[in-house]
């Protein structure tokens, strides 16, 4: 099968998919593909702590909201710390100080205030055509880097939503985490290119890029560090919070909560797939536009 035909079929397959429940996991992309067997992460009966941690960290449905929800339901009992015979400050304060929620608020607070500040500073037209040749090349280079990385956004959505051991999708927290993980990252990358286009100083262009990358990853970094210090929590989350693909489908179908259904309808998760598909095109536009108009 040629690349174009297979790509079209794969895109259609993914666009039909619900990235929360992954309802297309058991269906073939085309007649030439092997029939999927839902056993990727369950193929090994015994998994190490590190393997379980990687499965948890790779699940976009288990983010800051789901981590805080875990603390309100199970983490507050501190059974894992008692087994370890240790006091882990980040574990206790994750509930007492709502650290995961504060991380989420901090990300959006920094992002919104930064965008407002840069917008107020910009006093040129849409196409000023005043930048030096070197700065235009720098802007084109940054956009070119994001073009090469844009294809991994789609791959990340496809790969990270196909795990067969996952956080249950029958909570509002799981939906919010999924949208935050993918939508916020794409928003940061798009904003980064626009801010670099607006910036006159070459050093600031690079520093803004690094700063926005840091802002994009701060929630994942928090989660990774937390599980490094609370390795016993990994066992608890994987064994008692995460469910199989079939269990997840049953739990989602059984959830009749009106608030849950309303949020599922209101949050445009389908747009995540479409936006990821169009992102390379956006990067190409920024490369051309920056070369002509910056």
Question: Largest sheet at a glance?
Answer: 2 strands, antiparallel
How many angstroms separate the termini? 42 Å
Q: Please report the number of helical segments.
A: 13
Principal-axes shape call = globular
Strand content bin: under 5%
- The tally of beta strands, per DSSP, is 2
Gyration radius from CA atoms, angstroms: 21 Å
Give an account of the 3D structure:
With about 290 residues, the protein is an all-alpha fold. About 70% of the residues lie in helices and about 0% in strands. The protein contains 13 helices and two strands; from the N terminus they run H-H-H-H-H-H-H-E-H-H-H-E-H-H-H. Strands 1-2 form a two-stranded antiparallel ribbon. The radius of gyration is 21 Å and the shape is globular.
Summarize the structure.
The chain is mostly helical and 294 residues long. It contains 13 helices and 2 strands, in the order αααααααβαααβααα.
List the helices and strands and how they pair.
Elements: H1 3-16, H2 49-58, H3 64-73, H4 79-84, H5 89-96, H6 99-121, H7 133-160, E1 165-167, H8 172-198, H9 202-229, H10 231-241, E2 242-244, H11 245-254, H12 258-266, H13 269-293
Antiparallel strand pairs: 1-2
Helix pairs in contact: 2-10, 3-6, 3-8, 6-9, 7-8, 7-13, 8-9, 8-13, 9-10
Q: Descriptors for this entry?
A:
single chain; 294 residues; two-stranded antiparallel sheet; 2 strands; 71% helix
């Amino acid at each position: 099968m040629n690349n174009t035909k297979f790509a079209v079929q794969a895109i259609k397959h993914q666009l039909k998919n619900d990235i929360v429940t992954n309802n297309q996991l058991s269906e073939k992309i085309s007649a030439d593909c092997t029939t999927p067997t839902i056993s990727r992460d369950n193929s090994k009966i015994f998994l190490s702590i590190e393997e379980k941690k990687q499965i948890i960290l790779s699940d976009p449905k288990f983010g800051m909201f789901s981590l805080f929800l875990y603390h309100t339901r199970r983490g507050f009992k501190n059974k894992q710390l008692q087994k370890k015979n240790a006091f882990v400050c980040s574990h206790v304060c994750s509930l007492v100080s709502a650290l995961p929620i504060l991380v989420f608020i901090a990300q959006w607070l920094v992002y919104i205030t930064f965008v407002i500040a840069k917008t107020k500073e910009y006093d040129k037209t849409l196409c000023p055509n005043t930048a030096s040749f070197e700065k235009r090349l720098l802007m084109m280079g940054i956009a070119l880097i994001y073009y090469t990385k844009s294809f991994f956004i789609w791959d990340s959505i496809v790969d990270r939503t196909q795990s067969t051991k996952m956080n249950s999708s029958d909570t509002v927290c799981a939906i919010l985490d999924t949208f935050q993980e993918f939508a916020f990252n794409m928003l940061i990358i798009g904003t980064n290119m626009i801010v670099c286009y607006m910036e006159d100083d070459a050093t600031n262009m690079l520093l803004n890029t690094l700063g926005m990358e840091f802002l994009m990853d701060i929630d994942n970094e928090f989660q990774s560090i937390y599980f490094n210090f609370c390795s016993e929590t990994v066992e608890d989350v994987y064994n008692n919070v995460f469910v199989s693909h079939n269990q997840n489908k049953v739990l989602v179908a059984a959830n009749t909560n009106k608030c849950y259904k309303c949020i599922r309808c209101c949050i445009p998760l389908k747009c995540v797939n479409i936006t990821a598909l169009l992102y390379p095109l956006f990067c190409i536009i920024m490369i051309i536009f920056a070369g002509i108009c910056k």
